[in-house]
Specification:
CATH class of the largest domain: Alpha Beta
Low-confidence stretches: none
Mean pLDDT: 95
Number of strands: 14
CATH superfamily of the largest domain: Thiolase/Chalcone synthase
Number of domains: 2
Structural class: alpha/beta
Order of helices and strands: EEHEEHHEHHHEHEHEHEHEHEHHEEE
Largest sheet: 12 strands, mixed
CATH topology of the largest domain: Peroxisomal Thiolase, Chain A, domain 1
Oligomer: single chain
Distance between the termini: 28 Å
Length: about 425
């Protein structure tokens, strides 16, 4: 039941453990590079059996030109990730704000934990010195989860909608969905959307460790194993993904290069448990079905699923059941892929990073292998490849994000067969 204005992608930017920039990420995925390793940033002794993560190394946000050194000092790491990813996406989109109605250009960037590191640092200063005067004087701003969206809007002069989604691991995908709706229903012409997260510290790793959600493997190559029979939990990652969305008409009027098209958005809740997914996969199945129905696409036309695919026993099983509930016998013909085997689980950022990957998969008609996938889990009965599948004809894809609290998001994508106006 396609609704309203078409929504296209004209810019993408990512910051991941594979490096700065989406091209670097794509190269890493296609090559099957592993960017998971021993924890280096913090002392692992208090973590009780957690040995690996997916860290961004040698971080220097000012080097990219996205931020000044002063801006870096006045921001949390998650905001820096968002700003660098947004810089890449904005440069690629090539929008000239001097010719735009700024009130019709907005942003929505999600974050699950906001400025967690800055909060920890200021709390330590408070305890050590016994006075709030030693805390970061900007903490009240830096710790806010909405501040990445605010900073991006200020940087580029976006005076329309400015919001933040906080739905745990679904935050980035939710932000994209909100951007799609804002454009589709005529409220905005341009939306800068995505997610950012920086939780690799004592509190972040400790919190997810206590939930028994993280892999206990000491071997980085055997730690993040989406859909593999050996999977035992996810690997904590970090980073940001940002997309520039435009209405089809707006992009055509300025002759922009189209990188992909988002044709549907599904958004549901399990209403089941704060951490465990509904084992029958009902919530994700309904979200996937909503996204396809909005796109006017049959489940039999689905070619590719960029799965949430965390590598936990319950998540992968529920997502596999959801795919079967959606597609029936056709589920075995849908190629399933997760980037988390390469770069870990970036919480709020994962959905936006994976949306960028989904668009590129359709553009290139090839699917990177799911890194670490070696031993099929026969109980899941889904098609996963551990190596890149080239020249694979695909027209429609879904990208799933499933968050603690029962949040489910599915975004539907259509392949851009040729540039519509070039």
């Amino acid at each position: 039941m396609g609704i309203g204005t078409r929504v296209v992608i004209t810019g993408v930017g990512t910051v991941t453990p594979a490096g700065i920039g989406f091209e670097r990420l794509w190269e890493a995925l296609v090559a099957g590079e592993l960017h998971i390793g021993p924890i280096e940033r913090i002392d692992t002794a208090p973590l009780h059996g957690i040995h690996v993560d997916a860290e961004i190394k040698d971080w220097d946000p000012a080097a990219s030109g996205a931020m000044t050194k002063k801006e870096v000092r006045r921001s949390d790491r998650y905001q820096q990730y968002a700003m660098v990813a947004a810089h890449e996406a904005w440069q690629q989109a090539g929008i000239d704000m001097a010719t735009e109605d700024a009130t019709r250009c907005g942003t929505c960037i999600g974050s699950g934990c906001g400025g967690l590191q800055s909060t920890m640092d200021s709390h330590a200063a408070l305890l050590e010195n016994g006075t709030v005067r030693k805390m970061n004087p900007l903490l009240g701003i830096i710790m806010e989860g909405n501040m990445a969206a605010g900073q991006v809007a200020i940087k580029y002069g976006l005076k329309g909608q400015c919001s933040c989604t906080t739905t745990a691991c679904a935050s980035g995908a939710h932000a994209i969905g909100e951007g799609v709706r804002a454009i589709r229903h005529g409220y905005q012409d341009v939306m800068v959307v995505g997610g950012a997260e920086a939780v690799i510290n004592e509190l972040g790793l400790g919190a997810f460790s206590n939930l028994t959600a993280l892999s206990g493997s000491e071997d980085p190559a055997a730690a993040s194993l989406p859909f593999d029979a050996r999977r035992d939990g996810f690997v904590l990652g970090e980073g940001a993904g940002v997309l520039v969305l435009e209405s089809f008409e707006h992009a055509r009027a300025r002759g922009a290069r189209v990188l992909g098209e988002i044709v549907g958005f599904g958004n549901t809740c399990d209403a089941y448990h704060v951490t465990a997914p509904d084992p029958e996969g009902d919530g994700p199945a309904r979200a996937m079905r909503m996204a396809l129905e909005e796109a006017g696409v049959s489940s039999d036309e689905l070619d590719y699923l960029n799965a949430h695919g965390t590598g936990t026993r319950m998540n992968d099983a529920a997502e596999a059941k959801a795919l079967h509930a959606l597609c029936g016998p056709h589920a075995k013909d849908v190629l399933v892929h997760s980037v988390k085997g390469n770069i870990g689980h970036a919480i709020a950022a994962c959905g936006a990073i994976e949306a960028a990957v989904t668009a590129r998969v359709l553009a290139e008609q090839r699917v990177p292998g799911t890194c670490g996938y070696r031993v099929p889990d026969d109980a899941l009965d889904v098609w996963v490849s551990g190596t890149t599948v080239a020249d694979h004809p695909m027209r429609y894809a879904l990208s799933n994000s499933l968050g603690f609290g029962g949040h489910n998001v599915s975004l539907a994508f259509k392949a851009v067969e040729e540039q519509p106006w070039h």
